[in-house]
């Protein structure tokens, strides 16, 4: 039969007989085992973010082929690096700092992806409106996440978000108030206060309580609400 060649694990393999025709080499990179070798052999440092790629210009004295770079070329690359850094906007610097922190916070609290996306949309508007100027970025990150949690009516408490983000409750509460007042209306989102029913299901699942017990607890809450018990927060 005719050979059917396909690349598998760096080799060109015939799918009919399994014979390796040739190897596929990608570049001529040298391995680095120590910290000094990593620093000396690093040429570029690509930084990928959800809001766009960014490549940092190298500061080494050799090019990709190992040839030394003259003083004029070094001065040129140094100037280009300064120009590139000057072209980065303050919003992009803000995003570079905020995105990893938000990702770490959502991972620590086991927040679903759709809530994390809503939180990032909220924080993007916060940064574009420059609400973070002179204020705590961590407070707005935690506030954006909790606002997204309340928009989707997810069973998480404000104290849990504050504890996971290592941010004082007062700071998060102040940032949350600004988000509710100035950001959520522009996105068409509605802040929903936490309900006791959602917490009943959450605590019931954590304690492995039967569904019948959870239903009884919800009926008790509804009866108490009809009798005038205020339970919003």
UniProtKB/TrEMBL annotation:
Q: Which Gene3D superfamilies match?
A: 1.10.472.170
Any Pfam family: TFIIB
Question: Could you tell me the keywords of this UniProt record?
Answer: Transcription, Transcription regulation
A GO molecular function term, named singly, is:
TBP-class protein binding
Provide one Gene Ontology biological process annotation: transcription preinitiation complex assembly
Query: Is-annotated flag, keyword Transcription regulation?
Result: yes
Annotated Transcription factor TFIIB cyclin-like domain ranges read: 93-178
Q: Extract one GO cellular component term from the record.
A: transcription preinitiation complex
InterPro entries, per the entry: Cyclin-like_sf, TFIIB, TFIIB_cyclin
Region (Disordered): which ranges? 48-69
Q: What is this protein called?
A: Transcription factor TFIIB cyclin-like domain-containing protein
């Amino acid at each position: 039969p005719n050979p059917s060649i396909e690349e598998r694990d760096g080799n060109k393999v015939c799918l009919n007989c399994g014979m390796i025709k040739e190897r596929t080499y990608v570049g001529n990179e040298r391995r680095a085992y120590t910290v000094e070798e990593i620093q000396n052999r690093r040429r570029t440092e690509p930084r990928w973010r959800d809001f766009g790629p960014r490549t940092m210009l190298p500061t080494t004295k050799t090019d990709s082929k190992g040839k030394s770079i003259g003083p004029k070329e070094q001065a040129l690359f140094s100037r280009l690096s300064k120009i590139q850094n000057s072209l980065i906007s303050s919003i992009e610097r803000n995003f570079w700092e905020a995105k990893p922190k938000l990702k770490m916070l959502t991972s620590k609290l086991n927040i679903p992806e759709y809530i994390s996306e809503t939180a990032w949309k909220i924080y993007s508007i916060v940064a574009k409106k420059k609400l973070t100027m002179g204020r705590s970025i961590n407070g707005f990150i935690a506030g954006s996440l909790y606002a997204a949690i309340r928009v989707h009516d997810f069973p998480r408490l404000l104290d849990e978000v504050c504890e996971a983000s290592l941010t004082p409750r007062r700071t998060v509460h102040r940032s949350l108030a600004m988000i509710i007042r100035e950001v959520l209306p522009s996105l068409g989102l509605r802040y929903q206060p936490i309900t006791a029913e959602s917490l009943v299901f959450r605590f019931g699942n954590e304690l492995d309580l039967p569904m019948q017990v959870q239903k009884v607890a919800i009926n008790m809450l509804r009866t108490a609400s009809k009798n005038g018990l205020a339970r919003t927060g």
